[in-house]
Amino acid sequence: MSVGSAVVLHEVKKAFPLRGGPDLEVLDLQHLALPAGSCTVLRGRSGSGKTTLLNIIAGVSLPTSGTIRVVETDPFSLSEARRDRFRAEQVGYVFQTFNLLSALSAVENVMLAMMFADAVPRRLQRPRASELLARLGLSERLAHKPAQLSRGEQQRVAIARALANSPPLILADEPCASLDASTASEVLAIFLAVCRQDEKTLLLVSHDEAVLGVADRVIDMAEFNRTEARKGLRMTAAVSR
Amino acid sequence: MTILTVALKYLRGRLVASTLTAVSITLGVSLVVASVLLARGIKEGFIAGATDYNLVVGAKSSPTQLVLSVVFRMDLATPNIQYTTYRDLQQDPRVETAVPIGIGDAYRGFRYVATNSAYFAVFPWRRKTFALAAGRFFADDPPSDPTYEALLGAEAAGSTGLQIGDRFYEGEEMAEYPLTVVGILRPTRSADDRAIFLSLSSYWGMNEVARGMAVKPLTAVLIRPKRVSDLPSLHRALNVGPETQAVLPSGVLLTIFNMMAVAEDVLKMLLVIVGIIVLLYVFVSMYSATMERRREIATMRALGARRATVLGIVLAESAALATVGGIGGIIGGHAVAYLAGSRLGSNGLVTNPFLVDVFEPAVLAGIILLGTLAGLLPAVLAYRTEVAENLVPLS
What we know:
The complex is a heterodimer of chains A (241) and B (395). Chain A contains 9 helices and 8 strands. With 241 residues, chain A is α/β, with parallel strands linked by helices. Chain A has a single domain, classed as P-loop containing nucleotide triphosphate hydrolases (Rossmann fold, 3-Layer(aba) Sandwich), CATH 3.40.50. Chain A has a 5-stranded parallel beta sheet. Chain A starts with a strand and ends with a helix. In chain A, 48% of the residues are buried. Chain B is of the alpha+beta class and 395 residues long. Chain B has 2 domains: 3-46 and 255-390, no CATH class; 55-247, no CATH class. In chain B, strand 3 (95-107) and strand 4 form a beta hairpin. In chain B, helix 1 packs across helix 11 (307-344). The A-B interface holds A 51-52, 55, 58, 60-61, 80-81, 84-89, 91, 93, 95-97, 99, 101-104, 108, 111-117, 125, 161, 165, 173-174, 177 and B 1-2, 6, 9-10, 12-14, 295-296, 299-309, 387-388, 391-394.
């Protein structure tokens, strides 16, 4: 195992069972190590296994085979309840479509993440959530419900929520894909700055050239995912025939 | 943030649906509580009205009719007995108290009840007490010189608007014998609230036939024996004669309760159906809410929420709905029972609908339990929500 790596995956495969046919393999990785504090970008076409890889690292999707260590822990060796707690404390997740809870205000959405981790004492949860939102430029929007926020503001709330428990690892699945170009670059700049400042290990899916430019490493799933590579070879062979 | 906070936020988030569900629970529980309170109140009202005296003596007829007409004024009066029957019973060494009753016509629907001061006397064994709101009791006048004084029950006074000193009669033929209001009773929550009391002399004086009779008529005599052991012999003696019957009100109550039992069974079935409908409503409400928010549940799970936590949120939500609906239903049920009781109370039925005992906490606990159970299947669906499947980006 690599010393100082926040995430290490080795010979990880993921296949989905299909009714009445062979399993559908979507992921086959030889080795992946994300150094602590690094920023890694995944890119690839739709269906290339990017989200599946994030879900496996987050511990919400079980790999078919392989070994995984996230922050020195094999999440799949833990009971489900302990894995949930581990995820709440060690992994922050930013979704493409924000996934804020519509019934909760901005500050409550951030506090919600703290409720699952017990990393922040209850009396400090609201001040911490308010502070995080202020850091992301939302100090005037604390009591607003998601429907009262712009899309850029919603994504900033989602970023604050991912940072709520100070997890060492942040996963982001195309965090700016739902935003217009100018909002996307603004949100992304804040997101990357906060993660750099707090020395988070960041793994994000993105096709944004600006992000690719600042990343420590860019992984192209077409080559890195052996399943995708095999598909590519088959397609090339078919075209040449 | 706690599970309960999130559950309450969710309820507020879908305010219209939550309110409608809580209102449906409130209505269902109100119906159940009001029905139970009224059924209980009616029984207690019957018992309270009928158990001060051990025997009701009247003319041979239906025992139930005798008790209903004399005690509750709910049926036609039975034929008359002779005043001498009362005199004989008054002299009987086995009798502690004998009260003569003459049921007459009515003034604007409020029945004339002729009696003497014994009817209003305070006895240690007596549950009911009479108190004056205004004026005085009517005079125990001699038959030769009736005073035509009237004492009004609280509702009779309220409804007719009669005041102390007012003179009244119903029908031109009675214009010659108007009654004068001398007193008004405080409410007793019994059939006496709808009665217009007068002396026996006035009662006989108002009736043309009775005026000419040498032996005056009575409708009934209420009896309290000195010893309960005297009751069988009194009962037997009064039933042997060709003209009188003695009725044990408690026996008539059993007959009435047996008749009520059939209605109660039907009511119970209806209440069970209402309960099932309310439970289904809660279930459908929680089910649709859970299905709508599978993505949010998956998000919570991705953020680290345990399965038990999302299960707890849905259960807390349905329990909160049931609690609000249950409390509303208990209050509503008491309000309905009060409104219905105020209509029935003056007929001698329904005791205090504000009495709260072990029934209300038991109902509330039952509603919360059933409401939570109704949320169980949706909660299990939330528990089993697959995270990765439900986090697929929406396009």
